[in-house]
Amino acid sequence: MSISQMAPPATGTLEITDERQISATRRELVLNMGPQHPSTHGVLRVVLTLEGETIVATDPIIGYLHRGVEKIGETRRYAQFTPWTDRTDYVAAPQNNLGYILAVEKLCGIAAPERAQYWRVIMAELSRIASHLVWLGTHALDIGALSMSLYCFRERELILDIFERFCGARLTTNMMEIGGFSREIPEGLIDQIEHFLKVFPGYQQEYSDLLTANPIWIARTRGVGIIEPQAAIDYGLTGACLRGSGINYDIRKAQPYLVYDRLDFEVPLGTHGDVYDRYLVRMEEMRQALRIIRQCLDVVKDHKGPLMLNDSNYVIPPHDTVLRTAEDMQRHFVWVIKGFSPPVGEVYVGIEHSKGELGYYIYSDGSGVPYRLRIRSADFVNLQILPHFAQGAMLADAVALIGTIDIVLGSVDR
Amino acid sequence: MTILDAVKSIETALPDAFEREYEFRGDITVVVNPAHIVEVCRYCRDTDGLRFDMCSGVTAIDYYPNEPRFALVYHLYSMRHNMSLELKVYLAGDEPVVDSVTGVYPSANWFEREAYDMFGIHFNNHPDLRRILMPDDWEGHPLRKDYPLGYETVQFSFNFDEVNKHKPYAKE
Q1: Which residues of A touch B149 (CB under 8 A)?
Q2: How many Å apart are CA A255 and CA A269, to the nearest integer?
Q3: In chain A, at which end, N or C, are there fewer CB atoms within 10 A of the end residue's CB?
Q4: Residues in CB range of A27: below 8 A, 6 or more apart
Q5: Could you give the C-alpha distances from A193 to A135, A190, A301, A308, A400, in angstroms and in order?
Q6: A173-185 per-position pLDDT tens digit
Q7: DSSP-assigned states of every residue in A255-268
Q8: How far apart are CA B135 and CA A14, in angstroms?
Q9: What is d(CA B141, CA B143) in angstroms, rounded to the nearest whole number?
Q10: pLDDT over threshold 70, residue A9
Q11: Taking CA B45 as the corner, what is the angle to CA A104 and CA B87, rounded to the nearest 5 degrees?
């Protein structure tokens, strides 16, 4: 029997038996996205309710990468917990270290020497650029600009090489210590950073040339995912998500920590609060980070001050005196075996992480381990806006909306 | 208006709610009566001179075995006056209940879900109170101090079935 002899399919006889579909005036489709979807940047799962191609409801489901870091913090001594902070937001480990270390230092009432503070700023800002590069590469990849991810990860290597020379690790750096840095800055590191400062603006111009005026990029991002300023505050957004909506709040300016009050930099602000503005804000933040590193490098080049706080109960004693004096050897032994006991109290420290406000809340009962350690990660809070600003958006924009929040699931789930 | 004036203002406006205040390393904490937490939050947000318009965190502490067992800590921040304030409420009992502040601060939604998930604190009038980080069928609240810290037995071929029997596989 040839095809032409087949009876044509009957039309108009399809019976709809689903009661709900008959009774409902709207026809909705529930679509599960993730947790293995590549555009969710990890293991985010989003349950989308669609009407045609329009999103009517979104339910982000998180927790697939929950490792109980806060519970682990309650069983580790203060100095032992620093490596765990690397593993929360693993693309910006030095900034996580910094937030935790600043909280412990505030709890103990100590501060690192000036030179160490400048180095902390340099490492935090390098890590901000690295984190933004990962964001830019993956965000552009989601939207369809494949080559961006290759370029961004290429330049990120330069920063990871700097981290490797500085502390020996590339991703989970564990580089900040309570009281400063216990090892001297490696030789040649300043030249390596100088090299990065020299070449990176040219690379960044390449990204700009590829994206900023690209009609496809503009069509996919401009006017998409608008967050009104009031909604941004109500939902507790911080970082580029807040500043993209035009609200000038940067913790480095509002409550300066380290030496940010001595540095000259600007806080870029968006005007429309759409995906495109948040892209521009993050691009400008990278340029400002370069300015900050430049100013810090000029200071640390001729700075001969100490890198580690010495006279304190809370800081590990310097290596050479541990080997020469009995007191320091005993102090070192106690510090390593028993840890130190900060005063009773509770502190909250928020720093301007590349994703927003990263806060560490420590409640100490005076023992060697934190009684309660809370990590307020920026992207956990920022992700809350997704159901709000995805409502009424097109399905194809869902990946742009998830990408623009800049989430890392290790930090969302902790 | 400084943060101390703000605290004074809360004390005079809401004497029933205000219990005490204390300061540590420059952070001001106001202890609030749990029955009035929504009222205090609304006052902090809407009063001129305070304008704590952003809630940047709600978290809990478990003081087990002491009473009152739980505390909730609210971190508020005022964009206009650049100051931050901590509110603290103490909740007694093993199954504490408190009013949700999501009506005042929408950002508290996930924070309160997390506090419910991790500590088992129930929030009245919360729009969507369910577990957020742990699986829906999980038993217990992991950040409670009486939650057992277990370790997994290493599974070898000789004890594979025995260990497998006790593994907490996901249920239907």
Answers
A1: 71, 75
A2: 18
A3: N
A4: A21, A51
A5: 22, 5, 12, 22, 33
A6: 888 888 888 888 8
A7: S--TTGGGS-----
A8: 40
A9: 6
A10: no
A11: 35
- Chain position carrying tokens 């130190």: A340
Q: Are A210 and A340 in contact (CB under 8 A)?
A: no
CA distances from A218 to A203, A223, A396 (A): 21, 9, 15
Please check whether residue B47 touches A, CB under 8 A.
no
Mutant choice from A314, A367, A384 vs B, greatest count of B C-beta within 10 A: A384
Give the angle subtended at the CA of A102 by the CAs of A252 and A304, to the nearest 5°: 85
Q: Among B36, B126, B101, B119, which residue's Cα sits nearest to residue A236?
A: B101
Task: Residue A363: list chain B partners with CB under 8 A.
Answer: 61
Residue type, A209: D
- Using one digit for the tens of pLDDT, what is the confidence trace for A88-137? 988 889 999 999 999 999 999 888 899 999 999 999 999 999 999 999 99
Judge residue B97's burial from the number of C-beta atoms within 10 Å of its C-beta, 0-12 exposed, 13-18 middle, 19 or more buried. exposed
The neighbouring-strand residues paired with B80 are none
**pTM of structure:** 0.87
